[in-house]
Design goal:
Elements lengths: L1 H7 L6 H21 L3 E5 L5 E5 L4 H6 L3 H9 L3 H23 L4 H12 L5 H36 L5 H20 L17 H26 L1
Antiparallel strand pairs: 1-2
Helix pairs in contact: 2-5, 2-6, 2-9, 4-8, 5-7, 7-8, 7-9
């Protein structure tokens, strides 16, 4: 279903339809990014959202369990169990990257809108949007490279003979690292003016993109109403 919807993005030349497509695309990205944290976003009426939490999701459990209790849980797991759960998260991350990098989806729709609406009044807004889009790509590339290193470390751990206490500490430290990768560098979020709304750099950039496109959309319709 998602593939079918995505294949339709970027083909319209009407600003109203292009704005609709961009918002739908960004909502899809935001919802997919939330899944990395064990949260599923469901839309309700009047543009409200409901967050459904998967308490067994490894990162959700890690973030909502006291350290000692989490280490006790990890103590009962083996390397293959943890690695399997981490690979699920990695697949979700790769899926997000794939959705965002489909050239015919977001970029082509944005390019079509730019060609139609760019002028002296909107140039700065488009500049901000393309800067955010560039930053989004950089975050995704960095996350993928860091995740590869996680699995390299996992292979090294599997061949070591260690006691259960040391094992749980290693698992816990590995989850700290995964959470850091998913979050991105939260100390550098000066690309948006509002407080952080999402789970990570990636989701904050997506929220910032959505806000900029809403700003552009409002400006566009105000201009039309003046004519």
């Amino acid at each position: 279903m998602i593939t079918k919807v995505l294949s339709l993005f970027g083909r319209n030349k009407d600003p109203k339809k292009l704005f609709f497509e961009l918002h739908k695309c960004l909502d899809l990205f935001i919802h997919q990014e939330a899944r990395l944290w064990g949260v599923e976003l469901k839309e309700l009426k009047n543009n409200q959202e409901e967050a459904l939490e998967e308490i067994n999701h490894l990162i959700y459990k890690f973030q909502n369990t006291p350290p000692e209790k989490m280490k006790l849980y990890l103590k009962s797991k083996n390397f293959n169990d943890i690695e399997k759960e981490l690979k699920i998260i990695h697949e979700e991350l790769k899926h997000l990257k794939k959705l965002i990098n489909r050239q015919e989806v977001f970029k082509n729709t944005l390019t079509s809108l730019t060609l139609l609406l760019v002028n002296e009044d909107t140039y700065e807004l488009f500049e901000d949007i393309f800067l955010l889009e560039k930053q989004l790509q950089e975050v995704l590339i960095w996350q993928e490279e860091e995740f590869k290193q996680i699995f390299t470390t996992s292979k090294d751990l599997k061949i070591q003979e260690i006691d259960s206490n040391t094992k749980s500490e290693l698992f816990y430290n590995q989850l700290v690292e995964v959470r850091r990768i998913l979050a991105g560098n939260l100390d550098h979020h000066d690309l948006w003016e509002d407080e952080m709304q999402g789970f990570s750099n990636c989701s904050n950039i997506l929220h910032a993109l959505k806000a900029k496109i809403l700003q552009l959309e409002k400006f566009h319709y105000n201009q039309i109403n003046k004519i």
